[in-house]
Design goal:
The protein has 40 residues and is mainly alpha-helical. Helix content is 42%, strand content 0%. The chain has 1 helix and no strands. The longest helix has 17 residues, at 10-26.
Length: 40
């Protein structure tokens, strides 16, 4: 797989970090599942 370097500003980079952390957290066996409206 080829890696592509992407340049981002501060805000998009922060948003990406948050999404990545949430995705990792959702893969845990004890993760809480959210409804479509963001409620537990």
């Amino acid at each position: 797989m080829n890696k592509i370097k992407v340049e981002m500003g501060a805000v998009p980079e922060t948003m990406l970090q948050t999404m990545y952390a949430r995705a990792r957290e959702s893969q845990k066996p004890d993760a809480k599942k959210l409804s479509g409206r963001g409620e537990i």
